[in-house]
Design brief:
Keywords: NAD, Oxidoreductase. Belongs to the aldehyde dehydrogenase family. It contains 14 helices and 18 strands. It has helices at residues 3-18, 25-54, 58-84, 121-132, 146-159, 172-179, 192-203, 227-238, 260-275, 291-302, 355-363, 378-387, 423-428, 453-457, and strands at residues 87-89, 99-106, 109-113, 136-140, 165-167, 185-189, 209-212, 217-221, 250-256, 310-312, 316-317, 322-323, 326-329, 346-352, 370-374, 392-395, 416-417, 430-437. The strands form four sheets. Strands 10-13-14-9-8-15-16 form a seven-stranded mixed beta sheet, with helices on both faces. Strands 5-4-3-6-7-17 form a six-stranded mixed beta sheet, sandwiched between helices. It has a three-stranded antiparallel beta sheet with strand order 1-2-18. Helix 2 (25-54) packs antiparallel against helix 5. The radius of gyration is 25 Å and the shape is globular. The structure holds nicotinamide-adenine-dinucleotide.
Amino acid sequence: MESAVIAAVCGEVRGDFKSGRTRSLDWRLAQLKSIVDLIKKHEEDITEAVAVDMGKPSYECFASEIFPVKSACQLAIKNLKNWTAAVNVPPLLATLPASASMKPEPFGVVLIISAWNFPFLLSLDPMVGAIAAGNAVVLKPSEMAPATSALIARLLPLYLDKSAIRVVEGGVPETTALLQQKWDKIFYTGSPRVGRIVMAEAAKNLTPVTLELGGKSPVIVDSSSDLKVATRRIAVGKWGNNNGQACVSPDYVLVDSSCSTKFIEAMKDTLKSFYGENPRESMDISRVVNINHFNRLVGLLDDPNIASKIAHGGEKDETKLYIAPTLLEDVPLDSKVMSEEIFGPILPIISVRSIDEAIDIVNSRPKPLALYLFTKKDKVKEKVIAETSAGGMVVNDCCLHFLTTTLPFGGVGESGMGSYHGKFSFDAFSHHKAILTRPFWMDIMARYPPYSAHKKTF
Ligand code: NAD
């Protein structure tokens, strides 16, 4: 789309917001109900588009793309009246007589830029929050999931207010043109590299941003863990979640050296039980999204420091964009595979001598989006919670905090800023306006000039 057309679309959307239409609760509820309707009628189309883009199994698509968006809408529909109501708070004694309240108001016209790896979820889920909060929206789905992007662009105007909610498809040129427009909020999901570009552009207009970024999410496994359960939960979080191409994917494992051999053996058994002797034939695993990412991942495995560290898997087939679930054992901490977000089916497993060593490794790196800990010991749990920082943490499982809508989901430091999900999505797109109201009937003169000597001593 040409820059001039993009500018015109943004101008129209701003006009819609100014009309006040998107602020009404009826409008918000109607849009949210229409999203539920769209999902009910087009579940198969969505599943098919996501499968075309990345071969995602239909169960995975339902669990991680369709169901969360539908339930986000249902939660917002149920709670909208509550969420939008003013909240009374006590005024300060010095301001009495007065009443104080906070009233959420929409930011205005918001831009949502989405990533490819959950192409339906990461487009629609933030949009639910933006609509619930009463904003007009422009959505830019990811060009790297073209089938899903096209489906969203086709369906949204059929179900939603086609003037106040717009889809702009495209890649870097279109996103660049969008970022040159004036926005009241930008919600970006993607890499930290592009997050920096988005934030720099937003700064020109002092536009607030939510940045949902990625990074290397570690797993710490201590010797008290039930290794069978732990490996199942890590494996489903890694390979069962878009084949490792998820922002909250377990990126590497730090396992107590006293049980590292057993852990690797248990993980091999788990992988066999999930995907059979030949995972290439399995219908239960997504493929690598495209040839660029395939080559990037092969590059990580072809690193001369890494080739000898493959403990399991390592097979690849360019024609099918297939890389087997791969375990690497004790790779150097300064290797490439331990320096960049893996975002694919490779899992380095590193032995550590103590929980302190694991904590030191985590803390020597950028703050992760997620941190996973497996332990039966409360003391270890409390220590890791107290001594590390991460966007979110799960103890004795992986990724499930993402689906827990009573928890805020977001990063910290390099893994992002701001959060969403559940009520936090509404808040991400609302300004909570502070309102202090005073009556005329009592007016204490001591606060007004001219200030007498008596007032100065007060
Ligand atoms: P990406 O940053 O390459 O692309 C994201 C979006 O930015 C796309 O819509 C793309 O068109 C746009 N974009 C790309 N290059 C741009 C540029 N130079 N200027 C302006 N816009 C540009 O990210 P991706 O590859 O789609 O997603 C993978 C990354 O996203 C990983 O780091 C992953 O961890 C992260 N991620 C985070 C979350 C989260 O919720 N925190 C969810 C999914 C993915």
